[in-house]
Amino acid sequence: MGAIRYQAVHVAGVASPGKVCSYQDVIDFLNLTRSNEVYTSARPVRDWTHPTVVYLDIYLYAILAVIEKSQIFTPFIWIALTWGNELISWDPSQFCGIEKLSIPKEMLWKPDLFIYEMTEEDNGAQSPYLYVYHDGTVSLGDDYAVASTCKMDVHKFPFDTQSCTITFSSLIYTVDDVQLFPHSNSSRATQASLEVIQSQGEWEFLNMSVTKTKLSLDEKAWDQLTYTITMRRRPLLHVINLLLPILFFLTLDIASFYISDKRGEKLDFKVTVLLAISVLLLILNDILPSMSNKTPLIATFCIVIFAFMLLSVLETILVTYLMEKDSVPARPVEDGSQSLSDDCEKTQEEIGCQHECKRSRCTCACVCGAHEEPQSEQQVHESLRLTDSQLLKLILGELQVLRHNLFPSDMGLHERKPLYWERVAKRINSIFFCFYLIAILLFLLCTFIEWMA
């Protein structure tokens, strides 16, 4: 039974024998060694028809990563296993009350449980020991960072809720050999995880449910325990980075209807806003997975907003084209030239020039032959004075025509009435603005109702 050392213990002046025990005494009593194949080679049962019952429990410590692009879920969990070993037992009263001891994992048989969804082997440091109790109960606990696959539905991104599963099963032992049972029910596992969870990151842990199923294949069945972890995304970051900028650009596009259509600033502004939405679509493409069961609502939201803005740009192009049709001048230069010609002829008659008259656009001067009778000094001054006055009038007329051609919008409304195509353009703009505003409001309302449903 091991070495027992006695010592005198004085109680009320009477010496009574006592003993000092160690864990090694129990190990020697059980003959637990690394080379003892009795404990390591086969299931620890005295009758092979008796199945080994394994109780499983997990607690969620942290949500390390949820990658939608590759649909990888990485929780940090603590896994506790408990099973019975019929080959081990001792009386605690014979070993100073020792009821449990820790030994290396290699000394005993362990159930070959694995996780179906695991994609990468956990390389973290794990405990090399397990606990053995006096009645043959064996307990093993370890921390795992499980990189597992998870079928995600990002239809309501960023207001989505994801449920990822972790399924445990034996690799070779069927239900006739190993039976799996949950140690805690769903409510207890959820409450325990809420108490020990340390980090959630972008995600908020909601609950954990556990179900027991069986996998049947070729007339064989394996017990399975499936833990479903439900979590909800915290949407604040995506709302600030994506949704609010899109709504701001949409507001700017609506406000641009109050910019004048007679110049190119309105069209330039709308195209700039459209390019800004395109940049946000590229950012969204890097976040969402390439494959999904349903089209994400945020993708539909961005595409429809982009389509609305594109339609607005096309309408602006149409209105600008109609405005330009009425802004073409009716060749005022020719009228000015004709008036200049008439003035020159009138001036020629007034000064009495009978021969060659040289005209230009702004001035006219008559050069009389030398054979004509010379005019008096008073007549020459009068002819020059009339020519200067007429010249000033012609220059003023030309400046007015030039101003009308360069700045048609600066002319007062009282000077002319809107022309036909301008009236048509304004009517189209008013009708389209009402339709545009109502359609956007209805679309935003339906989208947000679907998001929050």
Describe the structure concisely for a colleague:
With 453 residues, the protein is α+β, with helices and mostly antiparallel strands.
Protein described:
It is a single chain. This protein is an alpha+beta fold and 453 residues long. Among the domains are: 44-234, Acetylcholine Binding Protein, Chain: A, CATH 2.70.170; 237-328 and 423-452, Neurotransmitter-gated ion-channel transmembrane domain (Methane Monooxygenase Hydroxylase, Chain G, domain 1). It has 9 helices and 16 strands. The chain is rod-shaped and about 140 Å long. The chain starts with a strand and ends with a helix.
Mean pLDDT: 81
> What fraction of the residues are assigned to beta strands by DSSP?
25-35%
How many H/I helices?
9
* Structural class determined from secondary elements: alpha+beta
Coarse morphology? rod-shaped
Could you give a short account of the major beta sheet? 8 strands, mixed
Return the CATH topology of one domain. Answer: Acetylcholine Binding Protein, Chain: A
What is the CATH superfamily label of one domain?
Neurotransmitter-gated ion-channel ligand-binding domain
**First and last CA, distance:** 69 Å
CATH-level-2 architecture of one domain: Distorted Sandwich
Number of strands: 16
Percent range of helical residues: 25-40%
Q: Order of SSEs, N→C?
A: EEHHEEEEEEEEEEHEEHHHHEEHH
Radius of gyration, Cα only, in angstroms? 47 Å
Unreliable spans: 1-17, 330-337, 346-374
**Highest-level CATH class of one domain:** Mainly Beta
